[in-house]
């Protein structure tokens, strides 16, 4: 199995090694006669180290060598991640705007109740979206990142929900012949944690888009364009087992009103522990995206074949 290439001092590196996941440092990677996939990861989450580890864990399941460049916004600086971490491991758009990448990942962000144009880094984000059209083979957008991209590229606005979509929901595989759905069961589970959503009716109005997975409760989960260059994930198949639990007890301890996450705790009882039902789903989706939408489609010489 080929590894994700990570800096030795990145916190996620030690975590993944302790989980017996194969990672490689830059020095060893440079000695091999293989070109790794170059993935740009725009991390908009406040808890950047946690999100890094979740995404890198799934990328590490691939058989393809991957080099990840971490990107932060310049218009807004995270207050929940040490500055030393950002200075050491993150770059800005100005520093990479003249480069090309095989893939882009855009995380979610806790700004879903705001209008898109009111988000502090919206203008910078749209510049990155435009950049990706010309310089990235395939982009994957997660949760709010997916909502933002659907809005910017296709004019599909998010809609407020009556109550928070919070828990583990059943989804139907709508297109078993799609490369992105290869290996997924007819019915599978994935986490959601959001206050807004996208309507499948709005998505159907756009001829270039196809919904690949749908939940009666949570709505569309996986959406892709016909060119395989954009993938939208409205939920969080990358979540750790404890992620929803930490969010639930954080709000409980803060005195906030929050329902128990749906279909998450054993017998819906927080005292009985967590029932993990989505781990294979996340691995399969990311593996399929890397293999079929990125590796098999991207040019070998990125600079020469820059779009």
TrEMBL record:
Site residues (Important for substrate specificity), renumbered to this chain: 193
One cellular component (GO) term of this entry: cytoplasm
Gene Ontology BP terms: L-methionine biosynthetic process from homoserine via O-succinyl-L-homoserine and cystathionine
Record keywords: Acyltransferase, Amino-acid biosynthesis, Cytoplasm, Methionine biosynthesis, Transferase
One annotated GO molecular function: homoserine O-succinyltransferase activity
Localization in the cell: Cytoplasm
Protein name, entry field: Homoserine O-acetyltransferase
Site (Important for acyl-CoA specificity): 112
Function: Transfers an acetyl group from acetyl-CoA to L-homoserine, forming acetyl-L-homoserine.
Gene3D superfamilies, per database record: 3.40.50.880
Residue numbers annotated as active site: 143 (acyl-thioester intermediate), 236 (proton acceptor), 238
Pathway field: Amino-acid biosynthesis; L-methionine biosynthesis via de novo pathway; O-acetyl-L-homoserine from L-homoserine: step 1/1
Pfam families per the UniProt record, alphabetical: HTS (PF04204)
Top-rank taxon, per record: Bacteria
Reaction(s) this enzyme catalyzes, per UniProt: L-homoserine + acetyl-CoA = O-acetyl-L-homoserine + CoA
EC number: 2.3.1.31
Organism: Clostridium cellulovorans (strain ATCC 35296 / DSM 3052 / OCM 3 / 743B)
Gene label: metAA
Predominant location: cytoplasm
Transferase listed as a keyword: yes
Family: Belongs to the MetA family.
Amino-acid positions noted as binding substrate in the UniProt annotation, renumbered to this chain: 164, 193, 250
Keyword Amino-acid biosynthesis attributed: yes
